[in-house]
């Protein structure tokens, strides 16, 4: 039983490190791929393209959010604009990072 728990903990740690290291790039590219594939399905007349476009958009946003959280800046101006308006402004990871400069 203890080896199973340790195995699960090890897998979670390795997965977490993998997401932190390459998760933003993978999420952005996979999101873009889903967007393009979903558009292709919609052009072909299949309604599952809508779900693929939604999933791709969410994955693309998650990838950009993770990049901004790690690097304190946006990878693209489009993502910065998306997170600057509406309710997504509340989850903007770059909000509040700046420190005001005070002349002494």
Please give a structural write-up.
The protein has 104 residues and is mainly alpha-helical. It has a domain at 23-91. Helix content is 69%, strand content 0%. The chain has three helices and no strands. Helix 1 packs across helix 2. It is flat, with a radius of gyration of 18 Å.
Structure, briefly:
This protein is mainly alpha-helical. The chain has helices at residues 2-43, 48-71, 77-82.
Average pLDDT rating: 88
What is the gyration radius calculated from CA atoms? 18 Å
Strand-and-helix sequence, N→C?
Answer: HHH
Instruction: State the low-pLDDT regions, or none.
Output: none
Beta strand %: under 5%
First-to-last CA distance: 61 Å
Alpha plus pi helix count: 3
Sheet having the most strands: none
Features:
mainly alpha; 69% helix; 104 residues
Please describe the topology of this protein.
Layout: H1 2-43, H2 48-71, H3 77-82
Helix pairs in contact: 1-2
